[in-house]
Specification:
The structure holds 2 protein chains of 2 kinds.
Chain A (H helix, E strand, L loop, with lengths): L1 H14 L11 H21 L11 H9 L4 E5 L2 E4 L1 E6 L2 E6 L4 E4 L5 E3 L2 E2 L5 E5 L2 E4 L7 H4 L4 H6 L4 H4 L10 H7 L5 E2 L4 H26 L7 H22 L1 H26 L12 H18 L2 H8 L6 H50 L1 H45 L7 H6 L1
Helix pairs in contact in A: 2-3, 2-13, 3-13, 8-10, 9-10, 9-14, 10-14, 11-13, 11-14, 13-14
Chain B lengths: L1 H4 L3 H138 L1 H17 L1
Helix pairs in contact in B: 2-3
The chains are: A mainly alpha, B mainly alpha.
Chain lengths: ~425, ~160
Amino acid sequence: MSLYFCREFFRGYFMTLTPIQPAPFRPALRMACLLALFFALVFPVQASGGEGDGEKFSPGDMIMHHISDAHQIHIIGDLYIPLPVILLHDGHLDVFSSSKFWNGTNEHGELLFKPYTASSGVTYENHHEVITLAGGGHNHNEHVAHSSDSAHAAHPAPDSLANMTPGHGDVPHGEEEHASHDHPIDFSITKTVFGMLLVVCIMILLFRSIAKSYLRRKGQAPSGLQNMIEPFILFVRNDIAIPSIGERKADRYVPFLLTVFFFIWISNLLGLIPFIGGFNVTGTMSVTIVLATLVFIITTVSGNAHYWGHIVWPPGVPLPIKVILVPIEILSIFMKPAVLMIRLTANITAGHIIILAFVGLIILFGQNSAALGYGVGAGAVLFMVFMFFIELLVAFLQAYVFTLLAAIYFGDATQEHHHHEEPSHASH
Amino acid sequence: MEGLLSVSIGTVAWATISFLIVLFLLRKLAWGPIVQSLKEREEGIANAIREADRAREEMARLQAGNEELLRQAREERDVILREAKAVGEKMRTEAQQRAQNEADRMISSARQEIDNQKKAAIADLKNQVAQLSIEIAEKLVREKLSDGDRQKALNQALTGEFSKN
């Protein structure tokens, strides 16, 4: 009963959003988010403010470091676990450990990188976790001493990059990527990919074992792990899939919905475990875009005549309105999955940012005075505990919302006509 | 923030591959059997409930039947009792009637007998009186022949005897 109420509430809540906005956070969340955004935006500027004070702790950098993808897993301090780097460049494949780029750590435990010449003879460098061909215009302070001259000669830098002044280290990467076609394609098992594979393994082992206990205890009451997971399986099937899609057609979509639900949920929970590198799987656009694209493909493929009819030629609407409505409807086909993607990424990333912002707060105050650090720390820890509970809820909620909205889209696409049938019924 | 919103082809490829693998593997290995057994169990439970309902209905029906039977039996008993009572009553009245009739008959026959006896007695008496009268007349006639006085006395004695009778 209460789940039903919860679903109706959240459906109403999320359905009222215009498609372009991500889900608005609760007031407390929004406040914390603004705070985090403040840290993220202000402190890097201060840190790179040009006073030569590069040693000062920057919460913004710390946060970005934790929530961004990386080619190694940072456990704690200067302890890093290397991950395989897989690069495709000019038709040859290079596979090596990301530790080949490592060049010790600085006093904050941050990794320093050096270029590495792979077996194919190409020299790569890890430039802020974007792997580029060495010898480009990325003359960063920590890299410049190790730049390999031979690589430089082998792969001359593109002109656009050569024009940049060496002092301008923080050029937007996007521009570089568009300007240079010399980037290798990076198929590395990055932190996010590793986390994803971990989730995939957990899911296969978990659900295979549960499926076995279903087969072993046929027709009996569930027990153990099976008993723990079964309510969620039933929840997805009976409270998400069947009400949204309808009893008859739901079975076709239940495997996808269950997989998406548990994939998102387990990924979200994995991201909350400290000291395993701070996986941010579902907060990575590259992952959520895949989920959203699958939702888009399934919706489009299973769309029936009724669904397309409503989009292309909405019935019972005057012609001038149709002119406005049809482009909006067509846009909404793409917007609906895009919103799913943005909502999930933004919510999960925001959660990580908030918790990390409080960690940053403690360190920042602690740097000025130990007493202040402890004082702020006491308050910040309380708030972090609170945030962790919120995040546990959000981890479930976002999995639920994504699954529910996907189910509703599938339901819309496969819906049979109801009320528009009446005139034709009368004529028969 | 740009690092967050950028999409890396490699990660997208890995995400697609791993998600599709997990989707197909789980669909084959897990969701199929799980959903199937859930469905079977739900059907089993629904069947059990339906069966219990049916059993309860059957029971109610049986009970109603039993009550009906009992009611019928009771009615029948009442009818039989009533009939028996009526028959008994009838028999009793008949017997009474018969006894009455018998008694009446006996009384009337006794009365007739008495009448007859009385008539016979009267007739007999009449005969005796006639006889006596003849005997008196005879004695009178004989006395008359001998003495007038005595005749008178005898006459008186005889009339007294008659009046006594």
